[in-house]
Amino acid sequence: MENLGIGFELMVVGMSTVFLILLIVIWGGKLLIKTVNRIAPEEEAAPRKGAAASDTVDGNTMAVLQQVVSQITGGKGRVASARKI
Prior knowledge:
Helices cover 68% and strands 0% of the residues. The protein has 85 residues and is an all-alpha fold. The mean pLDDT is 87.
């Protein structure tokens, strides 16, 4: 019976230790994320200069797109505009 009490005590101490270590890891991770976001915030992507002219597709590509959409939709669909991404 004495061994059962020692085993139970050891189990409680071990599980408590694991729980506390996991809490420290979670809190440390949250603190690290907050610190990094404060020091180096995410940068906004600057719009490209001259993007409007280079983003449009040429006439041949537009014609192919219109044919494909027409074929897939049975002539009911159409391409209003297309641009490169």
